[in-house]
Amino acid sequence: MKLLLPPFVTIPSTGSIGEAHVQEWPCGVADDALVLTAKPNVDPALLYVAAAVARQERWRLTMVES
Q: What's this model's pTM, rounded to 2 decimal places?
């Protein structure tokens, strides 16, 4: 498993679906999780906003699984 450098958002697609978290430390991510990274020239602090929106809209992620 390759370590990813922070910051990035992880969103599990199994188990606790939609529980988005901003990763602040290098870590590996399993293949059953979505990974969101900031585009160049975008403030990485906006990843916290993206994680909060993903948590509030988790029903959209569960609909994809059906």
A: 0.81
